[in-house]
Design goal:
By secondary structure, the chain is an alpha/beta fold. About 25% of the residues lie in helices and about 20% in strands. The chain starts with 15 loop residues before the first helix and ends in a 21-residue tail after the last helix. Strands 1, 2, 3, 4, 5, 6, 7 and 8 form an 8-stranded mixed sheet that branches. It has a single domain, classed as YbaK protein (Alpha-Beta Complex), CATH 3.90.960.
Length: about 190
């Protein structure tokens, strides 16, 4: 587990998102981890929580406009499900478009406080946790929040966004039916 940076939040170190939080009066505090929180795995290790409690803020283009998908760190996004709610076609936004739509670089996109009005869609699985951790505008900073409050502040539409096909690729039990018996001396055995 990484230590939280204890240096004062002077304007030199304060991100635009932290400044926005301060002005908004939301009451969320940002924690900085020098080892980084760019990926869900990095963030979970830094915070000391389950990867499912990490909120991935993913920027996509749906029906020609930018949207943000808030997905549990344990899940892969199903683009078809996002498209059903946000419009088709769905493609992942490149770094330049993600920054112009949200005001933040990939790896630090917060779930709200964006530079433009961006529709937000939230993975229903996030509601299964008492608290979740989301990016705070920089690749080394996150904040803790109740998922219902996250939905409220991001004005997110809650839908099932998880790709359930990943779970089908790995059987959880042995195949049914009889397996052929090998005979003693059989060269294939």
């Amino acid at each position: 587990m990484s230590a939280i940076c204890k240096r004062p939040l002077s304007s030199e170190y304060m991100s635009r998102f932290e400044a926005w939080l301060g002005d908004s009066g939301i009451g969320v505090s940002v924690k900085q981890f020098p080892s980084g929180t760019r990926t869900a795995g990095d963030a979970a290790r830094a915070v000391g929580c389950d990867v499912g409690q990490i909120v991935k803020s993913l920027v996509f283009i749906a029906a020609g406009r930018p949207v943000v998908a808030l997905v549990s760190g344990a899940n892969r996004l199903d683009e078809g499900r996002l498209g059903a709610a946000a419009g088709l076609p769905v493609t992942k936004a490149d770094a330049e478009l993600a920054r112009s739509a949200t005001g933040y670089a990939i790896g630090g996109v917060p779930p709200f406080g964006h530079a433009t009005e961006v529709p937000v869609f939230m993975d229903r699985d996030l509601l299964g946790h008492a608290v979740v951790w989301a990016a705070a505008g920089r690749p080394d900073s996150v904040f803790e929040i109740d998922p219902k409050r996250l939905q409220e502040l991001s004005h997110a539409t809650v839908i099932d966004l998880a790709d359930r096909h990943d779970q089908l690729r790995f059987p959880t039990r042995a195949p049914q039916g009889r397996l052929p018996r090998l005979r003693r001396g059989d060269p294939s055995g």
